[in-house]
Design a protein that fits this description.
Helix 3 packs across helix 4 and helix 5 packs parallel to helix 9. This protein has nine helices and 15 strands. The strands form three sheets. It has a seven-stranded parallel beta sheet with strand order 5-9-4-1-2-3-10, sandwiched between helices. Strands 12-11-13-14-15 form a five-stranded parallel beta sheet. A three-stranded antiparallel beta sheet has the order 6-7-8, with no helix packed on it. By secondary structure, it is of the alpha/beta class. It folds into two domains: about 170 residues, 3-Layer(aba) Sandwich (Rossmann fold), CATH 3.40.50.620; about 120 residues, TPP-binding domain (Rossmann fold), CATH 3.40.50. Helices cover about 25% and strands about 25% of the residues. It is globular.
């Protein structure tokens, strides 16, 4: 039976839904027994949440004061020691996973498969390339351990209902001193996190300014949605880059995606192709976004969005 280790993503108190999506991927490996590892200063609360995921057999806690902030340089040496005996080590293909997993693979001397979207066997995986226009099958042979990042948009989150055992892992590796946490700068919002939100409203350069996005924020608050943006809007300085959706931003799979003033460049469409329902609002009837939209409305966003706000009041 193959042993699979899933590295949990969390904020210190709440487990990210990306972890449950990774568990779904892990369970598709032949004969897999899934363990989730939680690195934190105090891992109790997050470990308890991980233990409830259906399909998880065991949860390991790696507790260290240095793990308060998820720095790859700090976490990777500890995880490398905990990985002994596992055939696969998986993490989400999010900012967290893309930072951590390659460093972990290097410490293990193991191959990495990035953006796993389907498992064909214990050594064969499918992943997208060329902005998602081509799907390739890759095979890893002769490796004791395979490290992978999971394209979370390709997997549904495993439901709760599990009762995994929780254990504390004894890790002897010292914490590196060459890297330390200084500060984090991120906007505070009560809206859902973009990468895991069920509803997302995104704006493009057609909004014209940062002030233009205020309309989207109000609309998103009425719908309980997260707010994203096209690369053009980010490059123009209307919003910070953590809001970017697309090949060079976040890959998302919400139940509802509303694209407002977004033309539909291929790199943006790569980030939303797994959305269940896509709604597009654009004054250009020939905009490429309408080719993928389930519902399209040709109109001036500065007229349409206020009308939507009134209807939702």
């Amino acid at each position: 039976m193959g042993r699979v280790l899933v590295v949990a993503e969390h904020d210190g108190a709440t487990l990210s839904s990306s972890t449950a999506r990774c568990v779904t991927c892990a369970r598709s490996l032949p004969g897999s027994a899934v363990t989730v590892v939680v690195c934190a200063a105090d891992a109790g609360a997050v470990a308890a949440q991980a233990a409830q995921i259906e399909g998880v057999a065991r949860v390991l806690k790696i507790e260290n004061p240095a793990n308060t902030h998820p720095l790859a340089a700090i976490l990777a040496p500890q995880l490398a020691e905990a990985c002994a005996g596992y055939a696969h080590v998986l993490g989400p293909s999010t900012t967290f996973g893309k930072d951590l997993m390659p460093r972990l693979a290097a410490l293990l001397g193991a191959p990495q498969v990035s953006d796993i979207m389907a498992v064909e066997s214990a050594t064969r995986f499918r992943r997208p390339i060329y902005a998602g226009n081509v799907i390739v099958t890759v095979e890893v042979a002769g490796a004791e351990t395979i490290v992978g990042t999971v394209r979370t948009a390709s997997y549904a989150a495993a439901p709760n209902g599990g009762k995994a055992t929780i254990e504390t892992a004894a890790v002897s590796k010292g914490v590196p001193t060459h890297t330390r946490f200084v500060t984090v700068s991120a906007p505070k919002t009560d809206r859902p996190e973009l990468q895991s939100a069920r509803r997302v409203i995104s704006g493009g350069r057609a909004l014209g300014s940062a002030q233009g996005f205020e309309m989207l924020y109000r609309l998103a608050d009425k719908l309980g949605a997260a707010v994203g943006a096209s690369r053009a809007a980010v490059d123009a300085g209307y919003v910070p880059n953590e809001m970017q959706v697309g090949q060079t931003g976040k890959i998302i799979a919400p139940e509802l995606y509303v694209a407002i003033g977004i033309s539909g460049a291929i790199q943006h469409l790569t980030g939303i192709k797994d959305a269940r329902t896509i709604v597009a609002i654009n004054k250009d009837a020939e905009a490429p976004i309408f080719e993928v939209a389930d519902i399209g409305l040709v109109g001036d966003l500065f007229e349409v969005v206020p009308q939507l706000e009134k209807l939702l009041a």
